[in-house]
Amino acid sequence: MIVVNGIFETDADSIDAIRSALAEMEVACKAENGCHDYTFSVEVNNPNVIRLTEKWDDLDALREHFRQPHMSILRDAMSKHPPKSSQVSFFEATEIEPPR
């Protein structure tokens, strides 16, 4: 499984401006083959930070995701309201039982 973790520092006005684009992306991406999760959230203790969490079957599914036409939704929204900083990390992971 591939896990993607994104952190975007911005401001409340920008978040409000791109909220509908983020919601549209969530719906479109969750419908893609190989997608287990694609979710944006705003940090509870820092409302100027958007987090992105994605889970994909494998690297091929993630590569295909980047070729989808709806990726322009996010690119367009971010270009109009660029974050102050961004960091996106990609991990290959194996799901395990939680420790007890």
What does this molecule look like?
This protein is of the alpha+beta class and about 100 residues long. It has a single domain (about 1-90), classed as Alpha-Beta Plaits (2-Layer Sandwich). The chain has helices spanning about 10-30, 60-65, 70-80, and strands at about 1-10, 35-40, 50-55, 85-90. It has a four-stranded antiparallel sheet with strand order 2-3-1-4. Helix 1 packs antiparallel against helix 3. The longest helix has 19 residues, at about 10-30. About 15% of the residues are buried.
Give the class-level CATH name.
Alpha Beta
Number of individual domains: 1
Name given to the CATH architecture? 2-Layer Sandwich
Query: Total helix count?
Result: 3
Q: Could you tell me how far the N terminus lies from the C terminus, measured between alpha carbons in angstroms?
A: 23 Å
- Taken from the alpha-carbon principal axes, the silhouette is globular
Task: Report the β-strand fraction as a percent range.
Answer: 25-35%
With strands numbered from the N-terminus, the spatial order across the biggest sheet is: 2-3-1-4
Number of strands: 4
- Determine Rg (CA atoms, Å): 14 Å
Q: Report the order of strands and helices.
A: EHEEHHE
Q: What is the name of the CATH topology? A: Alpha-Beta Plaits
Structural class: alpha+beta
Task: Note poorly predicted spans.
Answer: none
- Mean pLDDT, to the nearest integer, reads 96
> Major sheet: size, sense and barrel closure?
4 strands, antiparallel
* Percent range of helical residues: 25-40%
